[in-house]
Amino acid sequence: MAAQPSASAASSSAPAASPAAGSAAPTADRPLEGRTIVIDPGHNGGNHKNPKAINRQVNVLTQWKACDTTGTSTNDGYSEAAFTWDVSQRLTKILKTRGATVKLTRADNTGVGPCITERAAIGNKAKADAAISVHADGSAAGNRGFHVIIPKKINGPVDPVVNDSRRLGVAVRDAFRKGTGLPYSTYIGSKALSFRNDLGGLNLSTVPKIFIESGNMRNAGEAAKFKDAAFRQRIAQSLADGLQNYLK
Question: What's the whole-model pTM score?
Answer without folding.
Answer: 0.90
